[in-house]
Each structure stands twice: as structure tokens, then as C-alpha cells.
Amino acid sequence: QVQLVESGGGLVQAGGSLRLSCAASGHTFSSYAMGWFRQAPGKEREFAAAMDRSGGRLYYADSVKGRFTISRDNAKNTVYLQMNRLRPEDTAVYYCSATALPGSSWSSVADRYKYDYWGQGTQVTVSS
């Protein structure tokens, strides 16, 4: 069982930056590939970024590539999402997620239904 708690959301102007953190409980954090998804009002939850168990493979949605960076610290049981050059269209609730799959392919990390655990979400609002 893994519990995930996100933090770091808030209100920022367009062009600004935020760093989201996701703290995971349990002793097997390094056994999970980790992902970040987001959900804007009236829209489905969509993939933003993910990484495999070791942090060696990174995956990004085209909409965030070059602006967002996912990272993890297995010693601290924490995964991060650094978000730079934010845009109003990045406004959403951001969710941290964990999957027992190794995270060795795009199809295994970009599909929200492949994830076993979810955090409660943190709101990110980007003003124009």
C-alpha cells in the first residue's frame, strides 16, 4: 500500500514557476514508477510526466515538454515536478500517481488506468 500526498500548488502569473512535491509512504517507493497527471475543469485527467523506478527513463506530454521536469529522490520517498514558463492552459488540479509497472514504455506510464495509487491533488492556477 502506498499513500501519496502532493504539495506546492498555488497561484502564479504566466511565465512563472512552481515546484510540486509528492511524498510517498511505505518502504517500497523505489519499486514504483511515478507519474504526474492533471485535470482541468470540465476535462478528463491527462498525462503530464512520468519516470521509471530508477529515474533513468523520463516521459513527457508534448504540451509540457521543455518546460516541466520530473525527478525523484528515492531516499526521501519523494517525486517532484518542476514547472517553468507556466501558461494559463496549465491551470488544473495536479495528481501524483504510482504504478507497480516498471515504467519501461510509454504505454505503461501515459495511461492513467495503469496506475494503482493516487494522491488527493494540488491546485495550480496560472493567471494571464
Walk me through this protein's architecture.
It contains 1 helix and 11 strands. It is mainly beta. Strands 2, 4, 5, 6, 9, 10 and 11 form a 7-stranded mixed sheet that branches. The chain has a 4-stranded antiparallel sheet with strand order 1-3-8-7, with no helix packed on it. The longest helix has 4 residues. The relative contact order is 0.31.
The helix tally amounts to: 1
Strand content: over 45%
What's the total number of strands? 11
Question: Spans with pLDDT under 50 lasting ≥5 residues?
Answer: none
Mean pLDDT: 95
Oligomeric state of the chains?
single chain
Shape descriptor: globular
Intertermini distance:
40 Å
Following the backbone from N to C, one meets helices and strands in this order, namely: EEEEEEEEEHEE
Q: Please bin the fraction of helical residues.
A: under 10%
Structural class: mainly beta
Radius of gyration from the alpha-carbon trace, in angstroms? 13 Å
The largest β sheet comes out as: 7 strands, mixed
